[in-house]
Amino acid sequence: MKRIFVIGLAWLAISCQSKTEPGSSANYTIKGDTIYIPQKSNLKEKIKTTLVSAAPYRNKRSASGIVKAIPNNYAQIASPFAGRIIKSFIKLGQRVAVNAPIFEISSPSFFEAGKAYYLSKQEMQLAEKNLRRQQDLLKNGVGVQKDLEEAEVTYEVSKRDYENSIASLNVYHVNPANMVLGEPLVVRTPIAGEVITDNIVIGQYLRDDAGPVALVAELSKVWVVGQLKEKDISSIHESDEVQIEAAGMPGLLIWGVVYHISEMLDETTRSVEVFIECANSGRNLKPGMYATVQFTEKADSSILIPASAVLQMEENSYVFVRVGTNGYLKRKIQTSGTDNDRIILKSGLREADELVTEGAIYLLEAK
Fold this sequence. Notes:
Strand content: 35-45%
CATH class of the largest domain: Mainly Beta
Number of strands: 24
Number of helices: 4
């Protein structure tokens, strides 16, 4: 409505001018969709043109995003058994290596797990001795095949129990060869990184279902997860470079690379998640921080025209193109976006067309 009102004012201005300057309103002719304006017409001075040309252009699209720690670089440290914390090895902000000790816990459940390991080891050793004895007896002609077969089955079962007990201890980074029955369990970190949360309290009793008491994360690289609209999906590809600006640090531009484009579309927002991997050696990007993501397409030959040349009428856009010496043709165009005071053209013009950049509104009134 605002655009129509402006056009109406322009029409009123021209009408008034026609009355004060006799002959000016009739100083043009119309043939089909083309307006012809003689050289002596006062409208001629108000019209300026330029040649249309294409140039390399990178289309840009902005989206909101949020900084997240990369899942494989993020570890929640909790106790695998119920028990009481008796020692802490860390402090907030400390860097730790893989398998570094985090805290020590005294746990009856861990004692039972160690006891089960030693019992299974002894049972396997006894079963192995019995198997060898049955093999020797049968070899010397005094054994029974049935007893040998039973000894083989017993040994295989006890061996499997022993291997399972070792595996269960290895899950908790416990080396059975160095374990002493009755010692507390040392809980270790599975990754290298920084201690970003430390809720360890000496003497605290942890239940079986207790949550993590420490968080370790490697934040030298992070993800920025942006929300890309459905209509823009085809223009973004994995490995594309992306520019990031964190809300907490305006003006600081950080470059990232598209790591993954989600296969699922959010039906509510009509957008997909784009995971962008960013180097974060300066720790400027912190998990949970909001950011603006600017996607830049690969350079392509595009035509950009001044916004002043475009006339919007209802749902369509038009421009005037000069034809011949004095002719001006109204032409429908399609646009794909804006770049400051320029319009990105999708269709409707060709290179070397002479586009009316100023005064098109006067031609619209004449039309």
